[in-house]
Amino acid sequence: MAKKQSQATWGGRFSEKPAALMQRLGESVSFDARLAPYDVQGSKAHAAMLCHVKLITAKERDAIHKGLDQVLATIESGKFKWKGELEDVHMNIEQALTKITPAGAKLHTARSRNDQVATDMRLFFKDAAGQIIHGLETLLGALLDFAEANSETVIPGFTHLQRAQPVLMAHHFLAWVEMFGRDRERFIAFLDRANWCPLGSGAIAGSTLPIDREFTATALGFVDQKGKPRVTANSMDAVADRDLFIEFACACSLIGTHLSRVAEDVILWSSAEFNFVRLPDTFTTGSSLMPQKKNPDSLELIRGKSGRLTGNLMSLLVMVKGLPLTYNRDLQEDKPPVFDSLDQTLLCLDVLGGTLSGAAVNAEACAKAVSDPLLLATDLADYLVEKGVPFRDAHHCVGALVALAEKNHVPIHLLPDEDVDEVCCCLAPDDNWQEVFDIKRALARRENTGMPGPKQVKKQIAAWRKVLS
Ligand code: ARG
């Protein structure tokens, strides 16, 4: 046995310990300590497997299990002394364990930190995806509640941020529901891809020892629906690739993008110019100078954080892009963006739900905005189409009526017959064309799948309730 070691776990071939600067650069325990529960879980399964294949005794396994439980309890109590010079969570835990039991020195048999950290992160990802799915489902529930509570409210829908056509506000909410619903599906698919056990890949080329990878995979819950173990198929891929990290960050940044668009809509709606909603005091702030201000900070911060989530994705893509196979120490930098994406995504999902749950619709302002008859100009063109006018001619004719109404400062449906006759040859004097300028009629005629008619909207809400039940 080497007498003097510069570093307890890998110091055998070194005669000097790393420079203080090197230690500062190389430590990851300041951020990977949060992997401790997964690291202990992985190590316990690994020890059980080592015993199963007779590389350690049952007594040693039990001592390792007991010691690891003790270490985790100390960590959870906040009393654990993390040491930067031990680099990471893995070596800190292993050394603390070895102080408790000499069997700790056998724990790293047939294992490398490369497959260890890959396993820790897959356990983390399964947990994290579950949390995000839960956060999404809570938000989806809040969006559906809001849609249902305001099921009568009609607002203008916008294209180019210009008034376009009337929609139920609930239909607008359901558009967001579809987006977050797809985010949810993305994480469900991600869960399946995360569910493969890399342990046994070693540093790069597995191990010469008679390990049982399937045993460990089963112990850690990396199994298919029939309970069959799922182990990764290539040891080099298993320690080198970070596509799960990238996929996770990407799915989070998509949620962030969706959150940001919702935030922008609601910020607009809460401005005096729109005035469609009043935001709750609890998710807004005041100005230190202007006493009248009530600012939509929660939504602005969500919009801002979406940039950060996309930044995390970029960090990972750029970091991995030029790396030769297999493990390179660059990869230690893979964790902060992932942890940040999880934390910020969960926070933003909750904040949007909280902000919307406290928001109140200003029915009067919505009704005023939607009373603009020009929102139904397309309905008039459709009316002409039903009378046999080719759509292009109908479009042109209604366009001329719009221009005339604008010029004469008369609402389009109140234009006198003589004026209508002058610009439009498609409308006969006995046509009851003014009937299209009725919001209820307009919505009732939009009851095809995916449209904003009241029956459709009700159906979609019910369908989503069922998905979430
Ligand atoms: N802390 C390291 C990381 O997160 C663990 C793997 C270290 N492997 C190595 N070959 N130095 O990447």
Could you characterize what this model shows?
This protein folds into 3 domains: 26-109, Fumarase C, Chain B, domain 1 (Orthogonal Bundle); 114-368, Fumarase C, Chain A, domain 2 (Up-down Bundle); 373-468, Fumarase/aspartase (C-terminal domain) (Ribonucleotide Reductase Protein R1, domain 1, Orthogonal Bundle), CATH 1.10.40.30. Helices cover 59% and strands 4% of the residues. The protein has helices at 20-26, 29-32, 36-52, 58-76, 89-100, 113-149, 169-194, 213-219, 235-240, 243-270, 297-321, 335-357, 363-370, 377-386, 391-408, 417-423, 439-444, 454-468; strands spanning 154-159, 162-168, 277-278, 360-361. The chain has a two-stranded antiparallel sheet. The protein has a two-stranded antiparallel ribbon with strand order 3-4. Arginine binds at residues 28, 32, 88, 113-114, 117, 327, 329, 331-332.
The second-level CATH architecture of the largest domain is: Up-down Bundle
CATH topology of the largest domain: Fumarase C, Chain A, domain 2
Content-based structural category: mainly alpha
**N to C succession of SSEs:** HHHHHHEEHHHHEHHEHHHHHH
Give the proportion of residues in helices: 55-70%
Mean model confidence by pLDDT? 96
Number of domains: 3
CATH homologous superfamily caption of the largest domain: Fumarase/aspartase (Central domain)
Tally of strands: 4
